[in-house]
Specification:
Length: about 160
């Protein structure tokens, strides 16, 4: 690891200082900035696309961000989750492709009656309300169906602040 405690040998307003600052910025946002950006993106998306539902129930500070990671050679973009209670979560990320750019993806993570979890990718308030209407009789649980195989996506609920 390089020694970063040495005294700077150039002026803070020098061309070198400017170039080094540009290089640091080019490396991308820090993990903290990625988490904050993910939280902001999630809150903005829910306020813009779900103004009558999620924007009324989930405040900006409910979102907790995670930085990007590399998993098995695949980059996982920064994301944010919001705890809804009763085992339900919202997960927001930006799916980034060269062709489409950044697209908001909001997923409802729902506990199944079998003990595992299933996910539903939401595409607006009408779909959210339909899903919630289906979950109401089971108090927020997805009814397990062996034929569907939809309980495989999330093996266990993420733990957050002891709220699980």
């Amino acid at each position: 690891m390089p020694d970063t405690t040495t005294v700077r040998s150039y002026a803070s307003d020098s061309p070198l200082a400017f170039l080094l600052e540009m290089a640091a910025d080019a490396c991308g946002p820090s993990e903290s900035e990625q988490r904050e950006d993910a939280e902001t993106a999630a809150a903005h998306h829910t306020y813009a696309v779900y103004p009558q539902t999620l924007a009324q129930a989930v405040e900006a500070e409910h979102w907790q961000g995670t930085a990007a990671t590399d998993s098995g050679g695949r980059r996982v973009e920064p994301s944010a989750v919001a705890w809804l209670d009763g085992g339900l979560w919202l997960h927001h990320t930006l799916r980034i492709t060269e062709r489409d750019g950044a697209i908001d993806v909001l997923t409802l993570v729902v506990p199944c009656t079998c003990g595992r979890y299933t996910t539903v990718t939401l595409d607006g308030e009408e779909m959210l309300l339909d899903i919630l209407a289906e979950l109401a009789p089971t108090h927020g649980r997805s009814v397990h169906d062996d034929r569907m195989g939809d309980c495989h996506s999330v093996p266990a609920a993420p733990q957050m602040g002891g709220l699980h």
